[in-house]
From TrEMBL:
It comes from the Bacteria. PANTHER family: D-INOSITOL 3-PHOSPHATE GLYCOSYLTRANSFERASE, GLYCOSYLTRANSFERASE. Keywords: Glycosyltransferase, Transferase. This is Glycosyltransferase. GO terms for molecular function: glycosyltransferase activity. It comes from Chamaesiphon minutus (strain ATCC 27169 / PCC 6605). SUPFAM superfamilies: UDP-Glycosyltransferase/glycogen phosphorylase. It holds the Pfam family Glyco_trans_1_4. Transmembrane segments: none annotated.
Length: 375
């Protein structure tokens, strides 16, 4: 019998749609997704969810706890998957008496930062975490936070996100059939945390130091869009849907993400899958798993314009090596293929359901909570 799983998610994305679709196509899992409806031109379009059983919530519906509970109950879930603890209407599901027989899994991508808020989190979140049967994290940095929340190591799984890897793989071969492109690519929101100001300044400094500078192509949208306008060599393509991105990826020679903070950016994983060498800062959580300096890219300090400039120059001067670095990137991105993501999640979902069943005693009492995630 198929396991019925309801994902309670926030914003939809191309990579999660690819994973949900692959999971729905599996023989073992019946998927239903509750997520936020796209509300702006710079959000991923609702059409990404075609073929995936789902309900997308508008601004009013996503705040209606009762309606969300009824929607979940109507699916009769074996497992409910929560996207963290920030959206309260979702969090209330964990205390619903009508869902007491469902197993719960929480996903988290937040890295450990050792600040006061995180040190208090085990106390603030304790009752919520006690309801979780498993926790799925993105990688090492969020695993460290999960452990500090008091979650038992045997209850933590890695691999929260995946990508449609097979659609990216051909790009390296297509790109390498001719002279490797001489251009840099940035994909992300045009906001301060993405260090757009440093990116622009560093790129201008790079242009001043070479005779034949490469273009910097930017794809995104945000409040700092004006900082890109009129700058020599910077091409602003704006926000593009995933279906419109293939030519952009193929014409790029290297990827850059100079963020000031980025929990686990999927853009790095997608760039690696596309066969690009990568420049990113050490606060990008996914660099731990996907980027190796001087192997398939460069990891540089945050908030450092000179380091970004030097990374531009290094790639420029090592153009002949970039195809090799890009091929290595694909190897590091391979574990995040949607097919492997399905295998990981099938295991996590089955274990969570078995754990839930074994934690429920006919007599109730102390045994009812023995298999929860907290130590």
């Amino acid at each position: 019998m198929k396991l019925k799983v309801v994902f309670c998610w926030s914003d939809i994305s191309g990579y999660m749609a690819a994973c949900w679709r692959a999971l729905q196509e599996s023989a073992e899992i019946d998927v239903f997704v509750i997520a936020f409806q796209a509300l702006t031109e710079t959000a991923f379009g609702d059409r990404l969810m075609q073929g995936i059983p789902s309900k997308l919530l508008d601004l009013q519906a996503r705040q209606d706890s009762n309606s969300i509970e009824q929607l979940v109950l109507s699916e009769h879930p074996d497992v409910v998957v929560m996207c963290g603890w920030l959206h309260q209407p979702y969090c209330k599901l964990a205390t619903s008496s009508k869902l007491q027989n469902a197993a719960f899994i929480m996903g988290m991508d937040t890295p450990w930062k050792d600040n006061l808020r995180q040190r208090l989190a085990p106390l603030v979140l304790r009752s919520f975490l006690q309801r979780m049967d498993r926790v799925v994290v993105t990688g090492e940095r969020s695993w460290q936070y999960a452990k500090r929340l008091g979650i038992a190591a045997e209850r933590i799984d890695r691999g929260l996100y995946g990508i449609d890897y097979n659609s990216w793989v051909p790009l390296w071969k297509k790109r390498s059939q001719a002279d490797w492109p001489r251009s840099f690519l940035f994909i992300g929101r045009y906001i301060p945390v993405k260090a757009i100001d440093l990116l622009v300044q560093a790129y201008q400094d790079y242009r001043d130091r070479v005779e034949d500078p490469w273009d910097l192509v930017c794809c995104g949208q945000g409040e700092l869009k004006s900082q890109l306008a009129g700058k020599p060599g910077i091409i602003d393509r704006g926000f593009l849907q995933p279906t419109d991105m293939e030519s952009v990826w193929q014409s790029a020679g290297a990827f850059i993400l100079p963020s000031r903070f980025d929990p686990w950016p999927l853009a790095i994983v997608e760039a690696a899958a596309a066969g690009l060498p990568i420049i990113c800062t050490d606060v990008c959580g996914s660099e731990v798993e996907v980027v190796r300096s001087w192997y398939n890219g460069l990891v540089i300090p945050e908030e450092n314009t000179a380091s970004i400039t030097q990374a531009f120059l290094t790639f420029h001067q090592h153009h002949a090596e970039l195809p090799i670095w890009g091929q290595r990137s694909q190897t590091l991105a391979a574990p995040y293929a949607s097919g492997i993501w399905v295998d990981r999640w099938q295991a996590s979902l089955r274990i969570a359901k078995v754990s839930k069943l074994s934690s429920t005693s006919l007599f109730g009492g102390a045994s009812a909570g023995k298999n929860r995630v907290l130590t």
